[in-house]
Amino acid sequence: MPRGRLEELQEKIGVAFRNPALLREALTHSSFANENPEISPRDNERLEYLGDAVLQLITAEYLFKLHPGAREGEMTQVRSIMVNTNTLAALAEELGLGDYLYLGKGIARGGGRTLKSLLANAFEAVLGAIFLDAGYDAAYHYYLDRFRALPEPVQDENYKGRLQQVVQERYGLTPYYDSAGARGGRQREYTAVVYAGAEPLGTGHGPTKQAAEQEAAKNALAGLEQAGQPRQRRRERPQPGPREEPAPPPSESPQVEAEAPPPAEPKPRRRARRPRKGGEEPEPTSDRELARAGA
After folding, report:
1. Which is catalytic among the residues 25, 43, 48, 124?
2. How many CA atoms lie within 13 A of 84 on its CB side?
3. Annotated active-site residue in 25, 43, 48, 52
4. Is 271 exposed, middle or buried (0-12, 13-18, 19+ CB in 10 A)?
5. Cα gap 252→113, rounded to integer Å
6. SS3 state of residue 139
7. N or C, which terminus of the chain has less Cβ within 10 Å?
8. Is residue 80 located within the same domain as residue 219?
9. Region 215-222: what's the mean pLDDT?
10. pLDDT band at residue 253, thresholds of 50, 70 and 90?
11. How far apart (Å, rounded) are the C-alpha atoms in residues 128 and 117?
12. Is 71 in the same domain as 199?
């Protein structure tokens, strides 16, 4: 049973519930509901689911208005700090939320009132209950007034936030988680699978749904980094340009022998005229012959 009264918690929260049963349900762990079904037939997991969605909307609206020039990746990184387990557990501790939890005997003896994952889940469940009972504005101030009062944002290894940024940059998708099952027994163990589209990226196990999702995100990051390293580190070899054929050595052009001029054709010799019959001398035809004839 809780150590504090619900009326005290309502004063701390600053909300007077019209339906106090919602607040009680938000503070009821599944271990208590399993041990005392006649007192609390419902646990806080449904309200935790609703509170998680409301918290995403609150932080997204807050960052969208606060940083009008910020890019999606930058806002996602800041939001992951605002909603991580350590931050929500610190807000729950500031309220003393652990003293108002309905826990099973085993978890209560094992220090469940100070367990960070359990406190973070209860804070989200209370946020969901405030949203249903008092509306969005009351839930908005319930979270942001306390977050602004923190001395500094509490950071941890938020593998889910890092994976979301990597998947959005690489695939243009938002990863989502599916609870593959939970084994019963004294302590439940959850199994979560994270997907990008239809492709499973990683699987994780843990005592809570958030712990299983964190482990699934961690394993998915390791797989993506291992698959991406060779491609990122590979250096492209310069493509060889067209191979230049070596210029042939200057060959000695064959010396063309000048053709000898054709030999001059021999002038035809004149035949000596035969003397005419009857002993008549032939008439001289040249000057030399004429001179001879005159002599």
Report:
1. 124
2. 19
3. 52
4. exposed
5. 101
6. helix
7. C
8. no
9. 90
10. very low
11. 17
12. no
Other beta carbons within 10 angstroms of residue 88's beta carbon come to 28
Token pair, residue 224, equals: 């993506």
150 and 65 in a common domain: yes
Could you confirm whether 259 is annotated as catalytic?
no
Which pLDDT tens digit goes with each residue over 141-177?
999 999 988 876 554 566 887 888 888 888 888 898 9
Average pLDDT across the chain, whole number: 79
Pair 150, 200 in one domain: no
Could you give the percent of the chain with pLDDT greater than 90? 36
SS3 213: helix
**Residue among 146, 84, 144 nearest 116 (CA):** 84
pTM: 0.56
Complete DSSP assignment for 87-136: HHHHHHHHHTGGGG-B--HHHHHTTGGG-HHHHHHHHHHHHHHHHHHH-H
User: In this predicted structure, what is the pLDDT of residue 195?
Assistant: 93
* Annotation says 52 is catalytic: yes
Q: Which residue has the higher pLDDT, 11 or 268?
A: 11
Domain residues for 184? 157-230
